[in-house]
Amino acid sequence: MIFKIFQASEVETLFELLSVNRIVGPVEKGRHVNGSTLYDFDVVYDFKDLKLDYGQTIHSAKNYFLPYRENLCTFTFENNDWQKHVDFGAYQAHVFFGLHPCDINALNKLDKVLMGDLYPNPFYGAKRSNMFIVGHSCLPTPSCFCHSMGADSVLGGFDLFLTRMEDEYMAEVRSARAYHILERLETREATHEDHLLFRKTASEKRSLFTCEVDTSDLTKILDMEFESEVWKEWGDRCLSCGTCANVCPTCYCYGVEQEVNMDFSHARKVKQLYSCNLVDFAEVAGGHNFRPESSTRLKYRYYHKHRGFVEAYEESLCVGCGRCGEACLADITVPEVIASVRGSEK
Ligand code: SF4
Ligand code: SF4
Questions:
Q1: Pocket test for ligand 2, best of 273, 304, 318 (most atoms within 8 A of CB)
Q2: Cβ burial, residue 111 (10 Å; 0-12/13-18/19+)
Q3: How many CB atoms lie within 10 A of CB 267?
Q4: Which of 188-197, 213-222, 240-249, 280-289 is predicted with the least confidence, judged by mean pLDDT?
């Protein structure tokens, strides 16, 4: 890894250099009822709209590489037969400017599933290889617990990572493309003192977390508490609305629909993101529903993230971004659910 230092004011020049491509970053999206500013990812045309000091966005950047609805293929009826058309490459290059470590870690987890050998998704892969990612340091929000999930820092999956240190940036360079772009800024090599300040900045951030999850032996505790009554209590509160999966940067479940034109000249297969909390998630042909109760669905969401994924990939499928708890109308949060399963709720 190469470390460079540049003046914080130079970040606007970096934005301009990268703006030959479409830039997506955090922007303001109005006010919460409590008066705090709401942020979300959106296309940014003007540097002054880019809010690098944001706390957390409502949605993750997932919408841009795992869209809610996506054409898998189209069919046309020609010469008395159906012709299939698939296009993986119609995706415009994007620069993601200002992703926090949790969101880059979320992408790295999705890569393991959607770019691995078991469930490769060429649509996702085409988008992922056409991205330039600029990470940005952050401070904990009241609801994030990324340090508990080991996602408060990130070692890869980005081109450039910027850590604000007083009136300068420490830039971690992870790709040749990023290296060449930085050559066009006024930079200097990071010194020993810069690295000390970098470590001090990281340790100060760790001391600011107010929300945490005890993950010690969590897979074993989940095994032992599979029949616990707490699942029913949380399930009774759950509205089965699917909002948690909608905002989650790591939820990737989907369904496939087929549509045929009334004149049978065109057809298409469409992929649509889905949530395991929705009532019909486990409904199969014939109408049988394997998970008719909300408690079972909610429980399986937790077992997938904190038990099954850990067994398959040796890491949790939750990065502790806190979005699901913020968005949930029933006030169901990961820290509270896990604490209650552990019998350690405060
Ligand atoms: S957002 Fe809350 S209420 Fe809606 S499905 Fe998720 S846990 Fe249930
Ligand atoms: S489960 Fe909740 S806290 Fe964990 S990554 Fe998804 S949205 Fe973030």
A1: 318
A2: middle
A3: 16
A4: 280-289
Is residue 61 within 8 Å of 104, Cβ to Cβ?
Answer: no
Confidence of residue 293 (pLDDT cuts 50, 70, 90): very high
What secondary structure letter does DSSP report for 305? I
205-239 b/e (C-beta count within 10 Å ≥ 16 → b): beeebebbbebeebeebbeebeebebbeebbeebe
Q: State the pLDDT at residue 90.
A: 61
Pairing type for strands 131-136 and 160-165 reads: parallel
Ligand nearest to the CA of 239: 1
In terms of residues, how long is the chain? 346
Integer Cα distance of 214 and 83 in angstroms: 53
The CA–CA distances, whole Å, from 269 to 49, 71, 266, 272 equal 37, 6, 11, 10
Q: Are 77 and 3 in contact (CB under 8 A)?
A: no
Containing H/E element for 188?
A: strand 187-189
Atom of ligand 2 nearest to the CA of 106: 5
pTM over 0.85: yes
Whose structure tokens read 């599933």?
113
Which element (helix H / strand E) includes 266? strand 266-273
